[in-house]
Amino acid sequence: MFIPSRTFSVLNRPPPNYDGHIPLTHIERGALAGGSAIMSLLNPRRGDLIAVLGETTATPYFIYRLRDAMLSSPCGRRILRDRPRITSQTMSMAHLCTLPANSVGRTYAAWLNREGVSPDTRDVVKYIDDEECAYVMQRYRECHDFYHALTGLPVMVEGEVALKAFEFANTLLPMTGLSLFAVTRLKPAERSRFWNIYLPWALHNGIRSKEIINVYWEEELERDVGDLRKELGIERPPDLRQTRKILKEQRKVAGVKKETMSRPMAGWVLMLDK
Fold first, then answer.
1. What digits encode the pLDDT tens for the residues 235-268?
2. FRET pair for 151, CA 20 to 30 Å: which of 9, 17, 65, 229?
3. Measuring CA to CA, which residue among 21, 47, 51, 46 is closest to residue 33?
């Protein structure tokens, strides 16, 4: 006698497809996507919410497109076969710091140290059903700091929004595009820099560059970082931290001049009062 299988629901959840996998109904996926989008906009520093947004909006099309981009590349296919992971155990900071100053590995280690970031801070993927696509998302997530190092963009909100714009143009992952709404959280001067400098840079470089998901970073550590940028077709944007530092010093100097000029005026006022 044929007994029809029960419909997938909250009370009848199918077994996981891999360790840590949590199957979601369409309603659950939509609720998580909407909730994480709103909350991450309110607090762009919540990496866990951004991770949930990335996973719940990547299917059914976008993560498969990224997986297919890897399958179409010999290097991407090797990455999918080897399944390397980027953690503090697989990336020895002590070793990376001994590499030449202009190497990819040294640039990566220097960026981590400067920004106070660790490769162990990336959440584990759990809401993508296909096991291979889950690894693709994990790989993208763990390579994110290499994208930072390659472009020189810092982890502050202004730098993250610029990098997300680049990633959107290159990967088409919806989360990277949705993250651009965080530009509303920037100050007027920061928004102006984004629209006039960093967004044009991000779109131009993200579209024209090769698929950065196909870079086997573990094999590029000793390579000259400038050569890798040239091969990928990526130009470094203006140094954001240096730009902010210069503008801060200019405002400080302008404030001192304003205060100095106001003192003689105050003296003349006192003399006139007498």
1. 999 989 888 888 878 777 776 666 666 666 555 5
2. 65
3. 51
